[in-house]
Amino acid sequence: MIKITKSFKELMRKYANAKNICIAVLAFLTVAVVAVIGFSVNKVTVNFDGNTNTFYSLQTSSDVILEQLGVEYSDLDQVVADKNGRFINLSVVRSFPVTVTFGKESKEINVTGGTVGDAITLAGFSVGEDDLVNLDLDAVLTKSECIDIVDVEFVTETVTKTIPYQSKTVYSDKYPKSTSKVTTKGQEGSKQVTVVKRYENGVLLDSEVVSEEILVEKVDKVITVGTKAVNTNSYNSAKTISTLTPPFEIELDENGIPVNYKSKKVVQATAYSPEDGVSTATGVTAKPGYIAVNPAIIPYGTKMFIRSTDGKYIYGYAVAADTGGFIKNRPTNVDLFFPSSSSAYQFGRRNVEIYFLS
């Protein structure tokens, strides 16, 4: 009986030792598992839309963490991850639209920040040194903005311009009183002008002349008016071919030229002698003094004083009253009526001076 009891006690002692060992092993394994799990857990902080969430997670993927948290975001948004050991900081930066207008072209882009200059580059535009931007290029974008760029272009042009001449009147005693003569013919000059033009968005807003260079000097026209006293003769005392009586006094200088007239022209004249009683194109009866003209050049009714350029013939006072057959081939000529065929034949065809009277 004593042996049995002893054996039982020994058996119980061995059993107790084995149980303690198992418990120890289990405790060790539990501590080990907890330690392993503890070393794998991450402390995660997520910032989005003004909210901050902090929690522990075994995950390290930003996409998985945000999905577990139920945070939705698009491809245009930006996820910023900062991982430091078991600490993970995630920030969701929302994108916002920015409209960039360059001249007449506009583009809308989405950004999550950056500067005005970055947005312009992202839109595919380039700002020139003369262009105008409504916002500072270095300003940081935090919300929707409209960036307006004015396309400014300076264009330099060089053109040649005419310099008009002026008319000047001078007086001289070398010419008879009340007579005038062009003593210097006017001539236009020219200059090279350089102009800088300013365009905004393709529209011309301003131009400035930056330089001028004279290429040809202008020559002013000089009209010399005579002051020399002369002995004038009355038209009535002159021996003329015309039998017309002028309706006003015509004063002639010492050379038999009218003192006062509007203009002068040298043309070729042909003498003719129609039959008595023939009517002119204006209806008046032909007689010395009524001359044939091209009415497109000298209108009917024009009053004139005519003399040959050599001074041998003083035709005298004349009125345009008929149309000559010469106007097709010699449109500037005139036909002078003579009193007889012999006198017309003697005159023939020669140059005459026509003084147009007022």
* Large-scale geometry: rod-shaped
Query: Please, what is the average pLDDT?
Result: 85
User: Which strand order does the major sheet show?
Assistant: 18-20-19-22-17-21
Fraction in beta strands: 35-45%
- Helix/strand order, N-terminal first: HEEHEEEEHEEEEEEEEEEEEEEEHE
Number of domains: 4
DSSP summary, beta strand count:
22
Task: Reconstruct the topology from this structure.
Blueprint: H1 2-40, E1 42-48, E2 51-57, H2 62-69, E3 78-84, E4 87-93, E5 96-102, E6 105-111, H3 116-122, E7 132-133, E8 145-150, E9 152-163, E10 167-176, E11 180-184, E12 189-200, E13 203-216, E14 221-228, E15 233-234, E16 251-252, E17 263-272, E18 290-293, E19 303-308, E20 314-323, E21 334-337, H4 341-347, E22 349-356
Parallel strand pairs: 1-4, 5-8, 10-14, 17-21, 18-20
Antiparallel strand pairs: 1-2, 3-4, 5-6, 7-8, 9-12, 11-14, 12-13, 15-16, 17-22, 19-20, 19-22
